[in-house]
Design brief:
The chain is of the alpha+beta class and about 450 residues long. About 25% of the residues lie in helices and about 25% in strands.
Length: about 450
């Protein structure tokens, strides 16, 4: 095996990795934290990283979309594994960029090729992919400026509420759920006229599905896959799911209603047909795949694909992973993932996001963060922070994710909220009900995820 010009290794040797992790949010801090737990990490670089990742590896002042600069750095530092956190570099083709260059084509990239990334980069591509491969999803119609009449006719066929999705990436803001048909028609026109920029030059109209949402994650080498812990995230800014949508205010794992029977349906009806469909279409996919699902009376439907881990779901998924993440990534790179063990702790994880007051609207930045040293027994992941001299300060809407593991959901919630109470910054806000809706179901939660897969 040759990786980045390194001599072939003997079987008696243990491969060490010099890893470049791309991204700067809570997801990337959690990935860095997990990578550092293994015994095969020689050096970890994070581009561009944040103050949290700086405590684990070495931050590099290169944007995750700066492909040429990343290539130069990779060669200079003899990187032999690249892990992509956010979606934008994947949709822009970073895996293809490295694979197509003679100098870097032996360096594995954990993330799909550009065509595979279209599962997230284009809602139209994803919906048609599901349709081609018989994967359950809501009825839909893709509309452009030239087919508005057909779009309005499709809206007439649907019952309220109406779901409108920008086709392209829109920073998590490109989905509208509207209760009035007339308003839906007007918003359809607004979207096509540039409400979300180029992302809404096409709009996907979907039938609204009534059910309970959850997120399921796999890691795949394109042929084999490992099922990771499922999670439930909380998008609304206010308690009891009130207020506007955000990037996520917290998450829990496991999800009580995700029984072994339900997850078997997910694997048979959704995951396996997706992997088979990618292979049939000649799409190279090596990385994480996120299935945003709706449980409709016990039947799983796909709401969306993401081609990376979610945030804040990562902050509850990775703490439950007991296996060496680098070992799993090696299986992805070598297409030997089926020989690897993916062990999951039976514990419950709860993450609460501490956000800037005013988020997801206008909010202040640069406020000092105190109390981090007082957090005991929980893990704090930096999401939107910066460093001013020796003091961490707020630098985004979602500032910190606080995660705790415990034997039960009530115990995990108690630990997390005790840790949150120790942290302070001006106008700090957080939801107080993360996981409350799952409490009545927790007695039936499954604990079989601790068995190796």
């Amino acid at each position: 095996m040759w990786i980045c010009g390194v001599s072939p290794i003997r079987k008696s040797e243990i491969m060490k990795y010099r890893v470049l992790l791309l991204g700067s949010g809570g997801r990337e801090h959690a990935l860095a934290w997990k990578l550092a737990q293994g015994n095969r990490l020689e050096k970890l670089f994070i581009a561009p990283g944040n103050p949290g990742t700086a405590t684990i590896g070495e931050n590099v002042a290169i944007a995750a979309t700066g492909f040429e600069a990343l290539k130069r750095f990779t060669l200079e530092q003899k990187i032999n594994l690249i892990v992509v956190g956010p979606e934008e570099p994947l949709v822009n083709g970073i895996a293809d960029f490295f694979a197509d260059d003679e100098a870097t084509d032996k360096i594995p990239v954990i993330g799909p090729c550009k065509r595979g990334a279209q599962l997230e980069g284009s809602k139209d591509f994803a919906k048609n992919f599901m349709q081609r491969h018989g994967i359950p999803t809501a009825r839909f119609r893709t509309v452009t400026a030239g087919t508005i009449a057909a779009g309005e006719q499709f809206l007439d066929e649907l019952q309220a509420p109406y779901v409108l999705k920008a086709d392209g990436l829109a920073a998590g803001k490109g989905v509208l759920i509207i209760h009035s048909r007339d308003e839906a028609k007007q918003q359809l026109r607004n979207m096509l006229q540039g409400m979300f920029g180029a992302a809404s030059s096409k709009v996907v109209i979907e039938e609204f599905l009534q059910g309970i949402e959850l997120s399921v994650f796999i890691l795949t080498d394109g042929k084999n896959y490992k099922l990771l812990p499922e999670a439930k995230d909380y998008k609304r800014v206010g308690d009891n799911d009130t207020g506007t949508n955000t990037g996520g205010m917290g998450a829990v794992s496991p999800v009580p209603f995700a029984t072994p029977g339900f997850l078997q349906k997910v694997e048979q009806q959704i995951i396996q047909p997706t992997i088979a469909g990618l292979q049939q279409e000649g799409i190279t996919y090596k990385g994480f795949l996120f299935f945003g699902l709706m449980n409709v009376n016990g039947a799983p439907y796909v709401i969306e694909y993401n081609v990376r881990l979610g945030d804040p779901e990562t902050e509850v998924v990775l703490p439950r992973l007991q296996s060496d993440l680098l070992d799993l990534f090696e299986g992805v790179a070598q297409q030997t993932l089926g020989t690897k063990t993916c062990a999951i702790a039976p514990a419950t994880a709860v993450a609460v996001m501490c956000v800037s007051g005013g988020y997801p609207g206008t909010y202040g930045k640069g406020y000092p963060i105190t109390g981090l040293q007082d957090v005991k027994g929980s893990t704090v992941f930096h999401a939107g922070t910066a460093q001013q001299q020796d003091t961490p300060v707020t630098a985004g809407g979602r500032v910190l994710a606080v995660t705790s593991l415990a034997e039960s959901l009530p115990a995990a919630r108690e630990k997390t909220y005790a840790a949150v109470a120790a942290i302070h910054f001006q106008d700090m806000y957080f939801r107080r009900d993360i996981g409350v809706d799952c409490l009545h179901e927790e007695d039936g939660r499954r604990d079989d995820f601790n068995k190796p897969q």
